[in-house]
Specification:
The protein is of the alpha+beta class. The chain folds into 3 domains: about 5-95, Zinc finger, CHC2-typedomain (DNA Primase, Chain A); about 120-235, Alpha-Beta Complex (DNA primase DNAg catalytic core, N-terminal domain), CATH 3.90.980.10; about 250-390, Dna Topoisomerase Vi A Subunit, Chain: A, domain 2 (3-Layer(aba) Sandwich), CATH 3.40.1360.10. The protein has 14 helices and 14 strands. The protein has helices at about 5-10, 15-20, 70-80, 85-95, 120-140, 145-150, 155-165, 215-220, 260-270, 290-295, 310-320, 340-345, 345-365, 375-390, and strands at about 30, 50, 55-60, 70, 165-170, 170-175, 185-190, 190-200, 200-210, 235, 255-260, 275-280, 300-305, 330. The strands form 4 sheets. Strands 1-2-3-4 form a 4-stranded antiparallel β-sheet, covered by helices on one side. Strands 5-8-9-10 form a 4-stranded antiparallel β-sheet, with helices on one face. A hairpin with a 4-residue loop joins strand 2 and strand 3. The structure holds zinc ion (ZN).
């Protein structure tokens, strides 16, 4: 593909017409006898005009109706008797316009409007459920879930408290009226409860459910028929609204890491709070809405890391397209299947990998900044820390 606008702006239509034989000797108007070979009649009149600041031409007398006007590319076609593609390729060569990979910019995907908050009854009931589940996690009944969080997810008690994680020991079906909803009962599946908050109130609740054959079963008991749907990883009460997960818990670092899911976001928050902010839009299939994008504008770079699988690949494609909206949103490949897997292989390696991404994002930014500004100075300090961390790979966990 060639950038047609670039060709149009680089190739002079006047010069091209002159090399075809046109003579523009009236100083006030670009008119000439028509130089085109298909002009079928008298060539003595000044039937050929260039207008629109030299961008368009028209023959007012004897060229065929389908070939008597256009831009510089059309002129070349009718002059040389070639097709559009050939005309573009030959003009591009003359004007030194090189081929691009793909089209100019991918079209930006359309954004959903900001979600309305869940109704007050929903938020109230959700808060009750979250508090109850928090109590379960801390009690005797939560021992298995606590072990799972520490051993398999790398999350410490401080982190569960901060994120208000909980445990639901038994699948429940709640009255929809209590959630301000109609219709079917509200499904509160058994599993580890992960609430998403916005301005201090719950907006959504995800429950990580045990699935047949999974590690989680060893910690909180095997999947049973009462648990319902065997293949669904996450369940939870309907009626919630997705929002960037716990963005408010961050400290406004210049770089934001958006992970594919809540687990990775919490792990980043726990291990790398001095390097980056962390969040998730909740799954590789999730799409940004305008609220999300507004929240992201404060960051110099938003590094989006999706899992190394098919869903993650689709997510990365989507993020690449979002680059048309903001070049600060950058998809990156995870160092392992996901960050939690990488943590399992050695916590410090994850930290130095994050540090590397942060320092290169800040390098890019510093390169186009006035290096004497205060902001540049602050950025440099963070970058230097990140560089130092990036060099400390292979430390023991
Ligand atoms: Zn003509």
């Amino acid at each position: 593909m060639y950038d047609l606008e670039e060709i149009r702006s680089r190739v002079s239509l006047v010069a091209l017409a002159e090399s075809a034989g046109a003579r523009f000797d009236n100083p006030h108007r670009l008119t000439s006898s028509c130089p085109l070979p298909r002009h079928a009649g008298d060539r003595s009149s000044r039937a050929f005009t260039i207008y629109d600041n030299g961008r368009k031409w028209k023959c007012h007398s004897s060229c065929p109706a389908d070939a008597n006007s256009g831009d510089v590319i059309d002129f070349y076609r009718y002059w040389k008797g070639v097709d559009f593609k050939t005309a573009v390729a030959e003009l591009a060569q003359q004007a030194n316009v090189s081929k691009q990979a793909g089209t100019a910019l991918p079209a930006a995907p359309s954004l959903a409007p900001a979600p309305a908050e869940p109704n007050p009854t929903w938020r109230n009931r959700a808060e009750q459920f979250v508090r109850w589940a928090e109590g379960n996690l801390q009690g005797e009944i939560g021992a298995g879930a606590r072990a799972y969080l520490e051993k398999e997810r790398g999350l410490f008690p401080e982190t569960w408290h901060a994120f208000r994680l909980g445990y639901n020991p038994k699948t429940l079906y709640d009255n929809p009226v209590r959630w301000g909803l109609d219709g079917k009962k509200i499904w509160l599946p058994r599993g580890i409860v992960i609430p998403g908050f916005w301005h201090g109130e719950p907006w959504y609740i995800k429950v990580r459910r045990p699935r047949p054959g999974e590690l989680l079963e060893q910690y909180i008991g095997a999947w049973t028929k009462q648990d319902g749907l065997a293949n669904l990883k996450f369940g939870g009460p309907r009626g919630g609204k997705s929002v960037l997960f716990r963005l408010e818990m961050n400290s406004y670092m210049p770089v934001l890491f958006l992970a594919e899911g809540e687990w990775d976001a919490m792990l980043l928050w726990e291990y790398c709070p001095d390097l980056c902010d962390a969040g998730t839009i909740g799954g590789a299939g999730a799409k940004f809405d305008t609220l999300d994008l507004a929240l992201l504008t404060r960051y110099l770079a938003v590094l989006v890391v999706y899992d190394d699988d098919q869903a993650g690949e689709k997510g990365r494609e989507y993020i690449t397209k979002l680059g048309a909206l903001s070049s600060r949103i950058i998809p990156i490949q995870p160092p392992s299947h996901d960050l939690t897997d990488y943590w399992v292989a050695g916590g410090n390696n994850m930290r130095s990998w994050v540090a590397k991404q942060v320092s290169s994002a800040l390098d890019n930014f510093l390169n186009c900044m006035n290096i004497h500004s205060d902001i540049a100075h602050q950025l440099k300090m963070i970058r230097d820390l990140a560089r130092f961390e990036a060099g400390s790979e292979n430390d023991s966990r």
